[in-house]
Design a protein that fits this description.
Layout (H helix, E strand, L loop, with lengths): L30 H13 L9 H40 L5 E5 L2 E4 L5 E7 L3 E8 L5 E9 L3 E7 L12 E9 L6 E17 L2 E6 L3 E4 L3 E4 L1
Antiparallel strand pairs: 1-8, 1-11, 2-7, 3-6, 3-8, 4-5, 4-7, 7-8, 8-9, 9-10
């Protein structure tokens, strides 16, 4: 095959951007290349110090090990891709369902109710305070825990005067005990799964009023 020189009389089309392109050269060492190198090594070895059979077999074993690792990495990459696709399909089935996530702040519409659960550390009364975005307490309520564990709770979206709340961001805090013995308890809120996002860190569920949360942070799906 005739090659086209880059410039000059030999290549009158060089000014038109038709200069020959350099061919990509592979930098990887395949099995055929390795065997060719081994053959050349045997042909050019010192007759007085021939390659020991154990050394020859050792080199073959090393190559097989490296090649096996490359194959395994490729297989693991394919497996990870399949698992990610499967996980994505499973997560997509959660859209429209209700998920429970560790959170204490929620965006609510006017008069909207919300619910969740509190992680009690022992039996007794749990005090719950709901605060608006300015930090003012709009509602105080309580639930009874029969024992340590998850205690369901519900807020009807009304303030202490029985009036519906305005739309906005509200936060909740739960405590057990009083005075110096008061202990903060973990809160979990329930919200509808609006959509699922695939992020570099993994799958993320976008919850109504609660924002985005990693799939691993979801405590329960109802």
């Amino acid at each position: 095959m005739t090659s086209i020189p880059a410039t000059g009389k030999e290549n009158p089309y060089g000014s038109l951007g038709l200069a020959p392109q350099a061919k990509d050269r592979s930098t990887s060492l395949g099995q055929a290349d390795f065997l060719r190198l081994m053959t050349e090594q045997l042909k050019n070895q010192d007759p007085l110090k021939p390659l020991d059979n154990n050394q020859f077999l050792g080199q073959l074993a090393q190559f097989s090990t490296v090649q096996g690792i490359d194959d395994m990495q490729s297989a693991m990459g394919s497996m990870a891709s399949v698992m990610e696709s499967d996980q994505t399909l499973r997560a997509a089935s959660l859209v429209g369902r209700e998920a429970l996530v560790a959170a204490d702040t929620v965006q609510l519409a006017a008069g909207a109710a919300t619910r969740g659960e509190i992680v009690a550390t022992s039996a007794g009364t749990i005090q719950i305070e709901i605060l608006d975005s300015a930090g003012a307490i709009v509602r105080r309520t309580s639930v009874e825990a029969g024992a340590a564990g998850n205690v369901p709770w519900h807020w009807d979206g009304r303030n202490d005067d029985g009036e519906p709340i305005a739309a906005g961001t509200y936060s909740m805090r739960a405590t057990a005990g009083t005075g110096k013995d008061a202990q903060s308890l973990d809160l979990r809120l329930a919200a509808k799964v609006d959509s699922v996002s695939i992020e570099p860190t993994g799958l993320v569920l976008n919850l109504s009023g609660l924002g985005s949360h990693a799939l691993s942070s979801i405590r329960r799906v109802g």
